[in-house]
Write a structure and sequence with these properties.
With about 230 residues, the chain is mainly alpha-helical. It has a single domain, classed as Rhopdopsin 7-helix transmembrane proteins. It is about 80% helix and about 0% strand. It contains ten helices and no strands.
């Protein structure tokens, strides 16, 4: 058992909007690919991974009755993609190298967790917890880097600001909901109820907010590159 209950309660409503946002960003990134900086390409890569893995998850849900393999896959790939993106946005070269190496090392941890600790057909709650904490720390460090070396571009016109703010808010706010995933599963088996409605609505809304902000980040970057 994995995300199938989550899909039933969360993705069944608003699934179309969610995928439309991801698909829109994917094709916009393809269209503006030559105008994007390395950092914006990293954001596009994150969204592309989310789209492909989510689509695969929907297929697996009907084919084998579980989406657990996609959870393992997205954790592994997102460790690498976020590490790459943070490294490309970082001004300090040592910090950039630390982000990239850290992402690769955490991806290795995710692989080890999937192979030897939590079965590939079991929800990878441990690597998900580590992922959330790592992303929040990465966002905070990036904000500190922005403060130390401020840009002359207004914050609301910086793609990095939109990416980093959305990433920090999403993974900070939804951390406890995902951390309690196993508890919610146990509750579902006993009472037939999964997450509270407010938690489901929160995660849904935060997904819309984060990926919309990622689109703005990519759009601002492509706009700036075209002007320059």
């Amino acid at each position: 058992m994995s995300l199938e209950i989550f899909f039933e309660y969360y993705m069944s409503e608003g699934l179309g909007i969610y995928f439309l946002i991801l698909i829109g960003i994917f094709f916009f990134g393809l269209y503006r690919k030559k105008q994007l900086s390395s950092g914006a390409m990293g954001v596009w890569l994150i969204v592309s991974i989310s789209l492909m893995v989510e689509l695969l998850g929907r297929y697996l849900l009907f084919a084998i009755g579980t989406t657990a393999p996609t959870e393992h896959t997205i954790n592994f790939l997102h460790f690498i993609a976020y590490g790459y993106t943070f490294s490309k946005y970082a001004v300090n070269k040592k910090l950039a190298r630390s982000f990239w190496v850290g992402g690769l090392l955490l991806a290795c941890y995710s692989a080890v967790n999937s192979i030897w600790i939590q079965d590939f057909f079991q929800s990878p709650s441990r690597s998900t917890m580590v992922f959330n904490v790592a992303i929040v720390l990465g966002s905070l460090i990036t904000f500190f880097d922005m403060i130390k070396k401020p840009s002359q571009i207004p914050l609301l016109k910086q793609g990095l600001f939109w990416f980093n703010t959305a990433t920090l808010f999403f993974y900070s706010i939804t951390f406890f909901s995902f951390a309690l995933h196993d508890h919610y599963l146990a509750q579902y088996y006993e009472t037939g109820e999964y997450m509270p409605n407010w938690a489901i609505a929160l995660i849904k809304g935060m997904n819309y907010y984060m990926y919309t902000s990622y689109f703005i980040a990519i759009w601002l970057d492509s706009k700036r590159t075209v002007k320059s």
